[in-house]
Amino acid sequence: MTHTSPCPCGSTLSYADCCAPLHLGQKIADTAEQLMRSRYCAFVFQHVEYIVATTAPFQQPLLDTQAISDWAKQTNWAGLEVVNHLAKLGKRHAQVEFKAYFHSTTGKDAHHELSTFVNIPSGRINRWYFLDPTVVMSVTQKQPCLCGSGEKYKRCCGQFLA
Ligand code: ZN
Ligand code: ZN
After folding, report:
1. What are the C-alpha distances in Å from 63 to residues 68, 131, 143?
2. For the whole prediction, is pTM greater than 0.90?
């Protein structure tokens, strides 16, 4: 794998022109889809720091980085297909439906998922972050949302986190 090889995220660009600037912190993702692609790519390269940094800030301390790292390593990734990008889901959320392919003992298999992303102000700009539904949050539905939107949790990110 060199920087001129096609990017593992399935775009037609080279890694250097696609996910590398995001992984290196030179650029931020413009859309939830771009963030999702760069996160898949980070799993391929076992770039755990990037996976953590692109998860909602209020979930980051709760992530099991060892489990993320083990999973990225154990999986023999075989490509990504973005099925659908719902770019606007209310004011600050978006969803991306995708199939992340991997080689299995029986051939090729896919994790078919619908991921939710939240757009949060970070300094003078807004950034997209992944909302991890596997992270157990101790928030009550009436509490202000942890993303800082000022809305109640149940009306904001709580809709997408069980
Ligand atoms: Zn890419
Ligand atoms: Zn929220």
Report:
1. 8, 12, 22
2. yes
